[in-house]
Amino acid sequence: MKYELVAGFETHVELATNTKIFCSCTTEFGGEPNTHCCPICIGLPGTLPKLNKKVVEYAIRAGLATNCEIAEISKMDRKNYCYPDLPKAYQISQYDKPLCEHGYIQLSNGRKIRILRIHIEEDAGKLVHRRGDTLVDYNRGGVPLIEIVTEPDFRSVDEAKEYVEKLQLIMRYIGVSDCRMQEGSMRCDVNISVRPEGSEKLGTRTEIKNMNSITFIAKAMEYEYGRQVDLIESGEKVVQETLRYDDVTNTTSSMRGKEDANDYRYFRDPDLVTINVPREKVEQIKEELPELPEEKKNRYIDELGLPEADASLLTKYRKIAEYYEKASEGTKNPKTAANFIIGQIFRSVETESEKEEFNVSVSAENLNELIILLDSGKIRMNLAKSTLDKMLETGKKASELIDESDMGGLDENTLLDLCKQAVENNPKAVSDYLGGKEKAVKAMVGFVMKNSRGKADAALAEQKIIDMIKNT
Amino acid sequence: MNESKIAQLHKGLVNKEFSCMELTEKYIEAINKDNEALNAYVTVTPETAVETARKVDEKIAGGKEIGLLEGIPMTLKDNISTNGIRTTCCSKILEDYTPIYDATVWDILKKQNAILLGKTNMDEFAMGSSCENSYFGGAKNPHDLGHVAGGSSCGVASAVGGNIAVYGLGSDTGGSIRQPASFCGIVGMKPTYGAVSRFGLIAYASSLDQIGPITTSVEDTAIVFDAIAQYDKMDSTSQGRKGAPVCDSLKNDIKGMKIGIAKEYFEGIRDDVRKSVEDAIKVYQTLGAEIVYFDLPSLKYALPVYYIIACAEASSNLGRYDGIRYGYKAVDYKDVNDMVKKTRSTGFGEEVKRRILLGTYVLSSGYYDAYYKKAQNLRGKIVQDFRNVFESCDVILAPTVPMTAFENGHAVSDPVETYQTDICTVPVNICGLPAVSVPCGFDSDGLPIGMQLIGNSFEEARILNAAWQYENAADKYKAAGFGVKY
To answer: Are A300 and A378 contained in the same domain?
Structure first.
């Protein structure tokens, strides 16, 4: 029998606000343990939370970018559980009135992954195990998070991978998070079940917690799918439980069963007032939202005529797209900037974070200047390419690297002069040509190009040389 | 007539009848003499008191003007956070806890050079009506040491009633300011929820807690309230005082003021208490007030609603005391769970544990709807009923407590019976309304009786005006003499 995979995602995304959700401590990653803390975020007795407005704004942005409805009235609730990394013994989260609901993300196969809800909450601290001791670092405590919950709409691992990539891309684009999975600013829990193909009924699900790489998510899902299918095939039952994925052994193991599930005793946090989101505010945030990656990519293909592969590469990171748009501004052909970026500039960025930052030695303005020079005919393509390499090396502007004398086309006399020299200095090529080897003319054109330092129009030079040979 | 002690002392300081140092030392001496019997203070801070007194004296000597509360010796309930001064909530679990920041109310008063004499006794985490839930033992009633000072702000009431502090700040979640004020024959006000910042008040039940003054006169309550009722950006529920300072209208005529009486407030009230409050109604009639009678049928739900909501919030608020970051930690444990369990089992007293268990229960899945949700719905109904009443009257007059101060040891025996004595005080906390308790007589044993004036939201000015007029007219209350006198 064939089995269908059914999965849903709960994704935690750390918001890139400067300060924490309920106090003014920095949200910066790292830092000496317990230095990004204050009485409020370590929950000292008597302290009260104060909701950071930026957090609400960022969450609304995330909601709008994923086609959600934004609640006019929302509230914060307490999720009570006892763990050393949670200094108040409750997490301030949202239970039954999340800020955003009923959105979706569309995949390339046309399927829509429905988003059930997006809510805001605070992150917990971190336990550090050292030489048999367990220490707690509360720097991360109170860092704002959004939790994005999907319906169980995934039917394959590839869909899941695409979803996570898309989500990451969208969140980065709208500037609400850097979504660095390795730093934990984006973490996924996956609910998985399997069912006989064609069946409508959902199988018993398990939940794999806290995965921080797309590769691991894919591997864990594949493993868990196989494990569940094997169980069913051998007549056993899938047990509803929470699992952890071990990337070394590539297996999942049980963290806790259904009967150990916490009773979180949710109730409204009496320390915080109702969150009112005026419609005008939502409209304003919507207007300020940048063009989303999907729209941008389509525009690059449809309006700028870029090949799909190039459009994908250029829109994968917001900074690269911004760079491309600046570099191609006012140029004749949108493909020129794309080719320079993909062909040459991309060589200088390797890692994800380098691509994300896109801090390259050639500024978009300088690349733009180079392309304008090329467009105006003042320099030729091969000179432009070699100049760009020099620009990447030195960080200098094209106009600083190209001699005045190199600029501008060759005047006709100089060109004729060079052609004449080429013919005179290459008697063998001349005789070869006259003997029927038409290709021999290329050597003479090469001479002209070399001695004009790339400035000559190769096609014109070829014509002149042929004329000269024929007329002598 | 009961004059403002704060105004008198202020005049004395300004006129150089005595120095701030002399005044402060008098109170420190009085504490040394009387605190052993009263057990009002759990921590005394003579060094900071003297240091501040010196500053105030320099200011006066330099010819500078001083504020009304400047140089006046006072105290804070031990659940109000004081930077560098231990704040225990009178619990073993916080016995050695010293805050690293100031509560907003203390920050305000500190900047006005208030003289903090020390931190005062309370029922553990403000849960109780007799002070007998204090880890440090109960505070005694200055009128009769064989009786309790009430609860939970028993230490403030005992100290102010016994004149070992001029005034103090307590907190009132279900009557914890008004009940001990009533038991000790002094004035105590629970302001409107949101009028005074809760930042730094160690939470019992966040939607009910409110800090307020305990003083010997209505005017002093007005003075202190005007000082502390400020909007605070650190407390999302804070709004500050609305309207003019309450002192401005304190002595206004109350002719035509509509005073409401609900019979439900008089059910199950001891005869002598009822009679005293009825006498007060007559005083108001002679002052030209109009007496309006009405029904408040939802009042009977107030007590269960209060205990469900307060315990639910407490169960969450007190979850943080786990021995990991601060406070008491159990010694013998196997692992972290065992440590938390043992710390909480041995660090909290019986009443606190009872309320945590109750609160955990009413919030648990399967019981939430039957208890917590129902209580929230009923809370809405009670709020609506009070709103309706205030359409036809200006203030409500009611007894503060159905009886006078309990004998020592009496309250501990039956917790439910003790909970029932909160019947008159909890409704205003449920509704967030302001109420002030003022003395209105004595029982046959010489123990004070109190009555409360309840107002609509942010109408502290009105209830204090009514309270001042009564105090001024009645002239039948005289503070029994304890401790130093000025």
So the answer is: yes
